[in-house]
Amino acid sequence: LGIADGFAEVGALLRLPRFAGVSEEDLRRLVAADPKRRFALRPDPLRIRANQGHSLQVPALELTPLQTPEALPPTLAHGTRRRFWPPIRAGGLAPMGRTHIHLAPGLPGDPGVRSGMRPDSEIAIIIDGPRALAGEWAPRRFFGGVGGAGIQLTPPPPPQRGSPFSAQPTG
């Protein structure tokens, strides 16, 4: 499908059996209406890419490095289920098959938080962004996600104790 830069040709995708009945117009409408801005389109020929959530390394992904404490939200959150908290507390967050860990720029219901946490999350793992960037959570690198979805991304950290995060119920 030609996805070296993360983009796949829409024509090739729409010829796959799983997309039978989906038109180019349907796809454009879905991308335009997605409030979380999960996808990007490029013309000539029309191509589509996921803006985040990649399971493949995408070398040309347009990530914005967030390099100063002021560039990061003071609170970052990762939603998960209660049963996953003990292993996370012991070994840190993991991308679980993705290339980055996804963090919301705040808690559900906070202004500007429209993406980054599953609606079925039972707890939010709270991360102090500036402390994490300052090196209290390994040396961390953070990126603003592409597509304007507000998601913050970070590569997986090595397992360690004493990370600047805690958990709280989401509901």
Describe the overall structure.
This protein has 171 residues and is of the alpha+beta class. It folds into 2 domains: 8-50, no CATH class; 64-169, no CATH class. It is 18% helix and 23% strand. The chain is built from 4 helices and 10 strands, in the order βααββββαββαβββ. The protein has helices spanning 10-14, 24-33, 85-91, 129-136; strands at 8-9, 39-42, 47-50, 64-66, 75-80, 101-103, 123-128, 142-144, 152-154, 165-169. The strands form 3 sheets. The protein has a 4-stranded antiparallel β-sheet, with no helix packed on it. The chain has a 3-stranded antiparallel β-sheet with strand order 1-3-2. Strands 5-7-10 form a 3-stranded antiparallel β-sheet. A hairpin with a 4-residue loop joins strand 2 (39-42) and strand 3.
